[in-house]
Amino acid sequence: MEYAVAGVARRHKHWHTRTESAKTKLALTGNECQGGARPGGWQDGRVDLEAFDWLLTDVGQRVLEQARLAVLAGEPELRVNTLLRRTTTAERAAAALTQVALRSAAVTKFGELAHRMYFTPEALEQATRAAVAEHRAARFAAFGARTLIDLGCGIGGDLIAAARSGLVCAGVDLDPVRVAVARANLAALELPGAVQVADATEVDHSGFDLAFADPARRSGTGRSFRVEDWTPPWTWVEGLLRRDACVKVAPGIPHDLVPEGVEAEWVSDHGEVKEAALWSGRTATVARRATLIGEGGLASITDEDDPGRTEVGTGPVDAYLYEPDGAVIRAGLVTAVAAGVHGRLIDPKIAYVTSAEAFQTPFARGYRVLEHLPYREKQLRAALRERGVGTLTIKKRGVDVVPDQLRQRLALRGDTPATLVLTRVAGAGTALLVEPL
Ligand SMILES: C[S@@+](CC[C@H](N)C(=O)[O-])C[C@H]1O[C@@H](n2cnc3c(N)ncnc32)[C@H](O)[C@@H]1O
Q1: Distance (Å, whole) CA 376 – CA 354
Q2: Which of 142, 145, 164 is nearest to 28 (CA)?
Q3: Is the CB of 158 under 6 A from ligand 1?
Q4: What letter would DSSP give residue 314?
Q5: Mind listing the domains of the chain with CATH numbers?
Q6: CA of 69 to the centre of ligand 1 (A)
Q7: Is ligand 1 within 6 A of the CB of residue 128?
Q8: How far apart are CA 177 and CA 170, in angstroms?
Q9: Is the pLDDT of residue 217 over 90?
Q10: pTM across the whole model
């Protein structure tokens, strides 16, 4: 078996560590950008601009700390509220409590930094998680940019990462609450930068080395990709992509929507596809890229690693099966992964790779193929029972099976755990008993 070191598979020139990604221009997660600007009545969810401004004063900070300590001590919300109301108004008490709750919710995205930051419920949902934003910021820095404008910065998920990587950053947003929050976040994290209320479509960004945008959208996950929902709109994005820029989009972006000469990068975080980013002008280094952020660091594979379908070929299931990461699949780089494990596809339309060799690769989960089992339910049940299988993990691709329902119908009662792959090989339904490498 060949092993990769810290996320870098051997013998593959474009698989990089995180450190490499920050140094070279070549290398460099539920998707996080829905919802639009909120015209009228500047309140974002439960965050009111007046109360938020007050929260940043010395008195506000003391009340916020009082709320934090009371929540930490396990006091119920009602009691904390009563306590805060002894010294402040209902709106202000609510503002303090809201931030305490949001900080705690934000830890999954921002780690320990969350405890010093400010949020609004909706903007937190839309914010880019730190791991993904830091990767993007490393690319900004590797590109050699010194100044960046974030055109629609929200509470500053991307802005903060860029500022932390040493860029001089400016942010604009239509929403005054978000502008106030982003500004407070830069200050709380002792980062330089300026944020102001402005319409991104009217801002002159020509003086900045790089422009970044993360348009708000009401839909865009999964199969539907409706550019007409975006704000700022897709037509504006297309214009922005004529300069050195990066635009975060939903991972469902169809390949044919990516303008000529623009690089599309799909990013996953611990196996979950989070977004796609379009890199234009001199920031584009390849046509398509999949970047995987995981425990071992960061790995990146591109169309330059891809010998293509004809070269890789299709053939029967061999000793090992590989299930490529979602970012690889979205980027259309399954055949690049096949080449990396000296393998081939099992079917032209299915994203499984097979090989005679065992590899550890960051780009796919590998399995040893133990047995081919009957694809018919009755015979399959008998085969699994014969092997004493109880807990069954079912993986499926390209077949119309609902794993939970099948598992129920199989009604297995043995002691042995097993993994079953249901898929199509050369068009035929196939059941494989496998074990993870
Ligand atoms: C998805 S959020 C950005 C999230 C941000 N990247 C982060 O990580 O926190 C999109 C933002 O664009 C703002 N926006 C939408 N249209 C805009 C426009 N025309 N000008 C400025 N900001 C706009 C919205 O108010 C929203 O805060």
Answers
A1: 23
A2: 142
A3: yes
A4: B
A5: 27-34+125-285 (3.40.50.150), 46-113 (no CATH), 309-436 (3.30.2130)
A6: 33
A7: yes
A8: 16
A9: no
A10: 0.87
